[in-house]
Amino acid sequence: MEAWNQRIFIIIIVVLCVGHVFAAEPDANNTNIDLLLQTDRDRREITRAQLDTEDFEFGLASGIINIEDFGSSNVNRLRLALHVTEDFFLEADYGRTRLQLTSFERLSGAAQLLSERQREVSYYTVAVGYKLFPSEIYLGNNYAFYGNGYLTLGAGNVNFAGENHASTVFGAGLQLFPTDWLALHVSLRDHLFEHDLLGAATRTQNLEATLGISAYF
Q1: How far apart are the first and last CA of the chain?
Q2: Residue 134 to residue 151: CA distance in whole angstroms
Q3: Residue 68 contacts by C-beta under 8 Å, 6 or more apart in sequence?
Q4: pLDDT tens-digit profile of 76-86?
Q5: pLDDT per residue over 44-53, tens digit each?
């Protein structure tokens, strides 16, 4: 009988010791967690972007346009945009350039296909734009600027060689905000229109690359 009493007493002692060990482990873990949470670290101050909420945008752009068969020329344009939503916008623009000599005109010497007045080319377009990939662009470690890409598709009119021609325009661009009301643009566009100046009617592709600046109001 005494042997059974001793066994029961030993079992009770073992159970109490094991329970004490397992009960002590969470306290140690909690202590470590408290030490981690109490670590002194300086919080970084983040300045949130404060972009203007105005819907209208007016800008100027300048660059190069390649008129098919007439080489590359400087082009200047005005741009007005209405931001309908955060993703979609409408834009209208007006541009002017001057035609260069064709290869035929250069080789023939005196023969010219167009008068000086006919070499002045102007166009206007109305397009729908869609913004892509809004993000921050980092310049070094201390400067971050908001920016986004965009696609445009529209139609317009080109006054080419003294005649008006309907055109289709599509393009892509990148917009960068150095301040809350000022934006920089890099854009590539293709003006498609048809003319019969050189004989048979030909649908031409005329690529344009511009760098511009715009303000919101």
Answers
A1: 99
A2: 13
A3: 204, 205, 206
A4: 999 999 999 98
A5: 665 555 555 6
